[in-house]
Specification:
This protein is mainly α and 111 residues long. It contains four helices and two strands; from the N terminus they run E-H-H-H-H-E. Helix 2 runs antiparallel to helix 3 and helix 3 (63-76) runs parallel beside helix 4.
Length: 111
């Protein structure tokens, strides 16, 4: 399914609370994602629940929580794998992110 550009966010503002900047940034990007145009009320609630799990991971990063976030993002189509699984394509161009050049380190033999 080719998804049109999202004119108005479907997801609400984050619930009131002391959210980290990282969670606020993630929520902002999810709100702007055109896949949310396909969300039902249950999906919107699942996205809100994801924000709470994401905030928990920001405060206590564990592999288990990271795995839970990835699985929830997959189901909601909020990452590339989830979009592929749901067969959703966005008409928005991909954002180019400039990366700094890698640091070169010299390897040396140790005895």
């Amino acid at each position: 399914i080719e998804l049109p550009h999202l004119e108005n966010p479907v997801l609400p503002e984050l619930p009131a609370g002391d959210w980290s900047q990282r969670t606020r940034d993630a929520w902002d990007s999810w709100r702007k994602d055109s896949v949310t145009s396909q969300y039902s009320r249950a999906d919107i609630q699942a996205a809100v629940d994801l924000a709470y799990v994401y905030e928990q991971w920001v405060n206590e990063p564990t592999i288990a929580i990271a795995s839970e976030i990835r699985q929830r993002q997959d189901r909601l189509g909020l990452n590339p794998k989830g979009k592929r699984d749901l067969r959703w394509r966005t008409s928005e161009p991909a954002e180019v992110v400039e990366m700094p050049p890698p640091k070169r380190t010299r390897l040396r033999a140790v005895e």
